[in-house]
Amino acid sequence: MTNIVTYQWNRVPRSGLGFVLAALVVLCGVEPATARLSRQDARLQNGRAALEDGLNNLAIRHFEAYLKASRSKDNKARGARYLAEALCRKGDYEACLAVLAEEELILADTEWEGAEAFWGASALHELDRHAEALARVEFFEDRFPEDAYEVPVQRLRIRCHLALGETKEALAGFARFDKDHEGTREGRENLLEWAAFLRDEGEDEEAAPLLQRLVEESPGNGEARTARLWLGEIRLAEGQPEESRSLYEGVVSDTNAAVEARAMALDGLARIYESETNYHGALGVVTNAALLARTADRKNGLGIHEGILRIRLGDVDSGLTVHRVAIAAMTNRAHAAETQLALGALLLDLDLDEEAHEAYQQHLEAFGEETGRATALMGKGWSLWNRERYAEAATVFEKAYAAFETDPAGRMALIKAADAYFADEKFASALPLYEEAASMENDPAGARAAFQAAECHAHLEEIDVAREALLTLAGATDDRHLAAQAVMRAAVLSEEQGQWEEATEGYGRVLADYPDEPEVARARQRRGLVQYRLGNFQEALDDFTAVVTDFPESVVSEQAFFMRGWCHYLMGRHEEALTICTEFVERYPDSIWAGDVQFWLGEYYFNEGLYEEAEARFVMLVEQHPDAQVADDALYWAGRSAAFVQAYVRAVERYAALSKTYPGSALLPESRFAQGDALSELGEFARAVLAFEEIIKTYPDSYLVDRAMGRIGDCHFTLGADDPERYAQAVQAYREVLEAPRASVNLQVQAEYKLGRCREKMDELDAALEHYMNVVYRYFSERENGVRVSLLWFTRSTFSAAAIYEARAEWEQAIHVYERVIDAGVPAAPDAQQRIQKIIIENWLPFLRDEATDPE
User: Do 482 and 472 form a contact (C-beta atoms < 8 A)?
Assistant: First the structure.
C-alpha cells in the first residue's frame, strides 16, 4: 500500500531548480529577479531541492539552519513546516512531532498551519497512534477546507479508518474520493489503494472491477500496469488463464513498463504455465524473469519459484538446492520461515515424504521458536506418518500439540498423536490422548476421538467397556452419522464375541433408529450374515434381498447378491442358487467376491458330475482373477475335473500350471500327486515316478509322502512287465511304506498285499504267501481292536494266497484260507464257499481217504 508521505512527495512535478524558483515566487510572494539570493533564502531553496531529490538528511540540515536563523514568525513557520516534512519523510516521526509541538504557536494562524496539521497527522499515523491522527485530520478538515493538502488529507482519513478497523467508514471514504476525483492521478491511486484493501480482505471479486477500470480508462500509466498484474492474479485464481495471460502479456510487451514490473508479469505467466502443468514452459519463463529482476526480494522470489518448478519436474535435488540458496538470501525471517513451511507442504503433497521431513526439520533448526514451530512439527509428523514410522510420528505430533498451546489447531495434533499410537498398535498410549481430545468442549472432533477411545478399549480386549462407551456416545452426540456408526460398531463387537442375539439386536437398532444413515445397508447385511451363520436361511435371505433391492449401489450389495444364492442352495433350491450365482459373475466380473462365487459354481458342477463345465468354471476363475485367494485351488480342481473325464493330458497341464503360477501354494503336494496319477493313466510311468519323488524330497512332512512312495512302487511294478528288475525297486518302495511310522493301517495293508504281488512276479511264492497271510492275520487282529481294515486288500490277499495253494495242489491249505473269508463274513464269503465246494468236488479222493483214516 502506498505510503501517504511518499504519495505527497511524488505528486509534485520534478522539473529541477527552475521549478523550485517558480515555487518560491508563488509561496513567498517574491518577484523573480536576477539578483543573488540571500544566504537565508539559499538555505530554504537548497533544502527544498534536497527534499525533492529525496536527500532527506541534507534537507533537514538546511531547514534546521534556516529555522535557527529566521527572525520573523512567517519565516520560522515556513522553516518548521518544511523541517517537519523532511523528518516525516525520513521516518523520524517522533522528531517531526517534537518540532511541530515546539513551534505550534508560531505555526498558528499562518499559511503553513494546514501543512503542520497534515504532517503531524501523518507522523501519528505512522506511529500507530491512529485515533490521534484521525483527530488531527478532522481538525484540518474543519479548519482548512480549501487548503492545498485537502486531497492527501482525505486519503489519510481513509487510512486511519482502516487502521482503526472502521471498515465501513473507510469504504465510504474510498467511494466518495473516487466520485470526487475520478480521472485524476489521485483518483487512480485511490482506486489502486481501494483494490489493495479489498484484496487484503480476501474480496478479490469486489476488487476486480476497480482494477478493470484502471486497465481500461488509463492503460498507459503506472497504476494501470499494477492493476494488470493484480487482475492477472485474480483471473488466474478464478480459472480464467487466457484472460490472465492477456493481462500479463500486456505488461511484458509494454516498453514503458519498469523492468521489475515486467519481471513480475513474467512470473505471473509462469504461474499460468504451472497451472496447466506445463512445468518446462514455466521454468523457461521464470528464468527469463530472473534476468529482468532488479531487487533482491524479486530475485529471491523467482529463485523460490524456480526451485519449486524443478521439484515438480522431478529434478528434486537441483530444485532443493536452488530453493535453499534463495531462502538463505532472504532478509525477512518471517517470510523465509513461511516459505520454508510452504516447501514442506509442497513436498508432502508430492509424496516426497523423506524430503518433506528434512524441510520441516530445517525450519525447526533455522527458526526455532520464532514462527511456525507448531506447523513445522505438524508437517514433520505427517511426513513420518506417511512413511509408517508411527512411533516417531506420535512423539512429534505430541510436541506439535504442546507448541500449538491454546490454538484450536492443537486438537488435530493431539488426535494425530493418538492415531499414530493406534496405528503402531500401542493402544494403551493412544487411549489417554483420545480421551483428552474427547474431553475438550465445542469441537466436533471430540466425538470422533471418543469413538476411537472405545476402539482402543476393544483392542485392549476390554470389550464390555468398549461397547458401553460406544452406546454412551451414540446417546450423547448430535452427530447422527457418528451415532449410527457407534451402535453399528457395538453390534459388530457382539458378533465377534459370538453373542449373536446382542449382535442381531444391535443391527436392528441401527435399522430402526437411523433409517437414513449409510450404516443401514451394512447393518442389514451383517444381520443377514449372522442369520446365515445360525442356519436361519430364510431370515438371512430376507435381509440379503432387502440390501440388493434397497441399496443396489452400496459396497455390501455385491456380497448380499450372491449370498442369496447360497441361502437358496442350503434350502434345497439348487436351480435358484445356480441362476443367482451365474448372474453375479456376469454382472460383477471385477468384484472381490467374483473369484469365490466362480469357485462355488465350479464346485457345484463338479458335485453334480458335470466335470467339463466344472473345469471351465475353474479355469475361468484363474484367467479372470489370477490373484484370488482360491485361484490355486481352482487350478487343482480343474485338473481333477479333467481327470474325471479321462482328459489326462489336460489334467497334467492344469497341475503343471499350478506349480508354475503359484509356487507357494499349499496344494502343491496334492497337485504333484494327482499329476503323477494322471501320468500313470497315460502310461508315462517314468515321469510319474519323478512327480511322486518330488513330493518325498520337497515336502517330507506331507501326509502324502507314504502314499507317494506306494505309488512309486505301483509304477515300478507296472514297468516290471517289460523290465523284471523293476520288481525289486517296487519291493523296496512297498517296504518303506510298510515300515513308515506315520503310514495308516490301510496303507500298510495295501503295501503288504502289493509286496506279495511283487514276490509272485519274482517267482518267490513262499515270500508271497507270507505277505498275503500277513494281511489276513492283521485284518482279524485289527478288527478285534476296533480298527476297520479295507476289505479290498483282505479279500485280494486271501484269494491270492488260496490261488497259490491251489496251484501247488495243497487243497487243505487253500480251503483253510477260504474259510478265513467265510469267517470274516465279508461280501466275498459266498465266492469263497463256492471255491471250497469246487475243490472238494474236483479233488474228492484225498478227502475220502482222510475220512477213512479218521479214528471216529
Answer: no
pTM: 0.65
* Interval 362-408: pLDDT, tens: 999 998 777 789 999 999 999 999 999 999 999 999 999 999 887 88
Q: Read off the C-alpha cell for 440.
A: 475438550
Give per-residue pLDDT as tens, 441-453. Answer: 666 788 999 999 9
Which amino acid is residue 59, in one-letter code?
A: A
Alpha-carbon distance of 70 to 41, in angstroms, equals: 10
- By the 10 Å C-beta count (0-12 exposed, 13-18 middle, 19+ buried), 306 is classed as buried
Q: Within the chain, what is the greatest distance between any pair of CA atoms?
A: 186
Neighbours of 430 (CB within 10 A): 26
Given a contact cutoff of 8 angstroms between Cβ atoms, the answer to whether 395 and 403 are in contact is no
Report d(CA 695, CA 698) in Å as an integer. 5
Q: Where are the alpha helices (DSSP H) in 238-295?
A: 241-252, 259-275, 279-292
What domains, with CATH codes, occur in the chain? Answer: 1-181 (1.25.40.10), 589-658 (1.25.40.10), 666-743 (1.25.40.10)
Q: Which residue has the cell 475335473?
A: 641
Neighbours of 176 (CB within 10 A): 14
Grid cell of 44 as nine digits: 530554504
Q: Which residue has the cell 480421551?
A: 435
Q: Which of 200, 199, 216 is nearest to 208 (CA)?
A: 199
Q: What is the pLDDT of residues 46-57, one digit of tens each?
A: 989 988 888 889
| CA–CA distance, 711 with 676 (Å, rounded to integer) | 8
- Name which of 180, 171, 244 is nearest 212 in CA terms: 244
Share the mean pLDDT of the chain: 88
**DSSP structure string for 645-679:** TT-HHHHHHHHHHHHHH-TT-TTHHHHHHHHHHHH
The closest alpha carbon to 820, from 809, 833, 807, belongs to: 833
Q: 442-451, long-range: CB within 8 Å, 24+ apart, which pairs?
A: 443/408, 443/411, 444/479, 445/411, 445/412, 445/415, 446/411, 447/473, 447/476, 447/477, 447/479, 447/482, 448/415, 448/482, 449/415, 449/418, 450/477, 451/482, 451/485, 451/486, 451/489
Distance CA 4, CA 8 (A): 6
Residue 522, SS3? helix
